TrEMBL record:
Pfam families: His_Phos_1. Coiled coil: none annotated. Gene3D superfamilies: Phosphoglycerate mutase-like. It comes from Streptococcus parasanguinis. This is Histidine phosphatase superfamily (Branch 1). It comes from the Bacteria. Signal peptide: none annotated.
Amino acid sequence: MNNSYILLRHAHSRFSSDDFNRTLSEKGFSSLNQLDFLNSFNIGYYFSSPYKRAFETINSSPIQFDKIVLDNRLRERKLSSRFIEDTEFEKTIQYLWQNPDKSLIGGESNREALNRILDLFEDLEERYSDKTILLSSHGNLLGILINHFDSSFDYKKWGQMTFPDCFLVDKDKSVKRIMKVTSR
């Protein structure tokens, strides 16, 4: 790879059936100071999911940025066209991790979601060289991407991700968790 990537999972958000406009919760806003350490990286470009909680995570944090580019390929993966109850959520995610080519009705498989974000990676690799690029997105999509680079990152490790959380994918495609403080 030509670049290094910081994968930023958004901070804790309020529950809403309007997935696109879900905002950060009070807990989410108060956790943003944890991201101050990202200013020590020489980040050249900032990309975010257009979903409000991912954008707010960068925009409301102490991260110093020039501009944030919204890219729809960073949106959260769609599980289904029907509402997934909280009681079904974990089983649904586990099933999809175990069956990466399967999808629920109206949803996106892990493989489809991975191909979408790899398309963004390909564009960024063609456009930039020797840059550190921050991608603000969602746990599901970022977990699938991390698994692509590190097969030991599985469903169990996905479940251990925090809000917010940060991982560095270096030029050698190694993945390292760089979040300093853990909170769920």
